[in-house]
Design brief:
By secondary structure, the protein is α/β, with parallel strands linked by helices. The radius of gyration is 16 Å and the shape is globular. The strands form 2 sheets. It has a 6-stranded parallel β-sheet, sandwiched between helices. It has a single domain, classed as HAD superfamily/HAD-like (Rossmann fold). Helix 1 packs parallel to helix 6. It is about 40% helix and about 15% strand. Bound molecules: zinc ion.
Length: about 190
């Protein structure tokens, strides 16, 4: 069983400016800009043996203002430039009543099944309350980048930037690993 870091897309992996409580999300490849600040933290997490998996809600497809083709082009860029292991998305709107739109956990369950993940040792990085809520339902640790979108629901920690989040994850991951090893030695 492996451990993974689940990554929100908009505002974490690509730039998506927040005004008030609204986030402006790219609608075309030409508007899509990778967040360069995420490169170094992702490298550290990958080197520690963690899988990197993007999990994103893209309701614009169902609502009709985002073409699936543009979305696929953005995601090709994302996978290639950030060397992600996988990407899961929900293209539904609230009205579609699916079980994959976060904070529902359908996409995370699918990822866990496909990559044989131990969810107790997985992490969720986001700026949004919905992801912290999903993490809580799954038993993953949630780490939010400080933002007006954090909400006031359950989360494990809020940190100022992605570098401090990566450091926190590396510490917890190393402790969990040594814990497992001590257990294995005792057995
Ligand atoms: Zn869905």
């Amino acid at each position: 069983m492996r451990a993974a870091v689940f990554l929100e897309r908009d505002g974490i992996l690509n730039l998506a400016p927040v005004q008030g409580r609204n986030q402006s999300v790219p609608r075309a490849l030409s508007d899509f800009q990778i967040n360069r600040a995420v490169l170094a933290p992702l490298n550290l997490l990958r080197e520690a043996g963690l899988l990197l998996i993007a999990v994103t809600n893209q309701p614009g497809v169902s609502r009709g203002y985002l073409s699936r083709r543009e979305l696929d082009l953005m995601h090709l860029q994302l996978m290639k430039q950030l060397k992600l292991d996988d990407l899961f998305m929900c293209t539904h709107d609230e009205m579609d009543c699916c079980n994959c739109r976060k904070p529902d956990i359908g996409l995370f369950r699918e990822a866990a099944f496909k990559h044989k993940l131990d969810l107790d040792r997985c992490f969720v990085i986001s700026d949004k309350a919905a992801d912290a809520q999903a993490a809580h339902s799954l038993g993953c640790i949630s780490l939010l980048v400080q933002s007006p979108l954090n909400g006031d629901g359950h989360h494990d920690c809020i940190l100022p930037d992605l570098d401090s989040i990566a450091q926190r994850i590396l510490r917890i991951h190393a402790q969990a690993k040594s814990g497992y090893m001590a257990h294995a030695v005792a057995a």
